[in-house]
Write a structure and sequence with these properties.
The protein is α+β, with helices and mostly antiparallel strands and 383 residues long. It folds into 3 domains: 159 residues, no CATH class; 67 residues, no CATH class; 124 residues, 2-Layer Sandwich (Heat Shock Protein 90). Helix content is 64%, strand content 10%. It is built from 10 helices and 5 strands. It has a 5-stranded mixed sheet. Helix 1 runs antiparallel to helix 4, helix 4 runs parallel beside helix 6 and helix 6 packs across helix 10. The relative contact order is 0.06. This is histidine kinase. It catalyses: ATP + protein L-histidine = ADP + protein N-phospho-L-histidine. InterPro entries: HATPase_C_sf, Sensor_HK_TwoCompSys, Sig_transdc_His_kin_sub3_dim/P.
Length: 383
């Protein structure tokens, strides 16, 4: 179980303070066993100063690391047990501030150690004591710098991961919006065609000479309502038809009968595609279901061409009870899988939008045989 940031900080503060206490007691024991010339250890006062130094370290080391390190460097002049807190104060400084600041404070401590031991001991004791203390300080500062570098690296990687997730989320959202726009355009084409047919037939009935007056008036209402619906449709959805200047007009919306032409187009582009169509009468499949089936196969062929170039693709379209089942599968290329391209999976997100709109299901992934499989089931209306 991962700890929350505040709990991790408190645990880290407690661990650093515990190390300071252990180091301070070791230094106090050393001073009692082998005191320097003229050194007299008064245990109660020494422990009081050491305890106060550890308390300062525990409470303020994150907020004011520079000030705490400087204050503790004065404290170990008064008590041997405060040396542990001084060392951990340098560690905190090195792990929370740039290396220039850490080295500057560590240099001041080194000068203080040189002067203090020069005044207190003999030449032999001076060299031994200074060497040990400076080595301890150097190791502690180096460890603190390593901790800071690791923290910065983790923060950098976390930020990059967050940006990558945000980028993927935006790409998925963009794919959804693009697919909805595409669906709106298709809806505009289909509805405009059917409403215009309704208006034409209503107009023919309205102006039929032998039609009863009530029937002609009703046909007139239907014709005017159809034209008003056309105008509303143009205002609400027609704006999505706007394209860049010079863009080619879109072809009529495809249906299930256009699948062989789509497969043949992929074959001419160099793909190895096998189409297995098991629909008794494709023309009887509703246009909206056939249109979605066409887009699913189109996206599956595009994915196969992009991620498994040269692979043999198998397309199966079958009427299974009240559903139209579509399956596109292909073997994966040999060797390790390449890293995902930016925007990879956006097309599948769009297909999910499209299939969900008509109450179908979409499934994709690796099959037990190691082939990539894209499968959809689209509901067919009752015959």
């Amino acid at each position: 179980m991962r700890l929350r940031p505040a709990m991790r900080e408190r645990a880290s503060d407690a661990a650093v303070t515990a190390v300071a206490v252990v180091l301070g007691l070791l230094m106090l024991r050393s001073a009692q066993v082998d005191p320097m010339p003229g050194q007299h250890v008064h245990l109660p006062s020494d422990l009081a100063v050491g305890g106060a130094a550890c308390l300062v370290l525990l409470l303020f080391r994150r907020r004011w690391p520079v000030q705490v390190a400087l204050l503790l460097s004065v404290g170990d002049l008064l008590a041997s047990s405060a040396m542990g807190a001084t060392a951990m104060g340098l560690f905190t400084l090195a792990s929370h501030r740039p290396w220039r600041v850490a080295l500057a404070v560590a240099g001041l401590n080194a000068v203080r150690v040189l002067v203090t031991f020069r005044l207190a001991g003999t030449d032999r004791e001076y060299v031994e004591s200074v060497t040990v203390v400076l080595l301890v300080y150097a190791v502690i500062v180096a460890i603190g710098m390593l901790v800071r570098s690791r923290r910065q690296l983790v923060e950098s990687l976390t930020e990059r991961a967050r940006q990558a997730e945000e980028g993927q989320r935006l790409r998925v959202e963009e794919a959804r919006l693009l697919e909805r726009e595409r669906l709106a355009r298709e809806m505009h084409d289909v509805l405009a065609h059917r409403i215009s047919l309704l208006a034409v037939h209503a107009g023919a009935l309205e102006f039929r000479a032998d039609a009863p007056d009530e029937q002609r008036r009703a046909a007139g209402v239907i014709r005017r309502s159809a034209y008003e619906a056309m105008e509303d449709l143009r205002e609400v959805i027609g704006v999505l038809r706007e394209a860049a200047p010079g863009a080619q007009p879109e072809r009529p919306q495809p249906t299930l009968t256009d699948l062989p032409a789509l497969v043949e187009e992929s074959r001419r582009a160099g793909a190895h595609v096998t189409l297995d169509e098991r629909v008794a009468d494709p023309e009887k499949v509703p246009a909206r279901v056939g249109r979605h089936a066409y887009r699913i196969v189109q996206e599956g062929l595009t994915n196969a061409r992009k991620h498994a170039p040269g692979a043999r693709v198998r397309v199966t379209v079958e009427a299974v009870g009240p559903f139209l089942a579509i399956e596109i599968d292909n073997p994966l290329p040999p060797g390790p899988r390449p890293p995902a391209l930016p925007g990879a999976g956006a097309g599948l997100v769009g297909l999910a939008e499209r299939v969900g709109m008509i109450g179908g299901t979409l499934d994709h992934g690796l099959s037990p045989e190691g082939r990539f499989r894209l499968a959809a089931r689209l509901p067919l209306p009752d015959a």
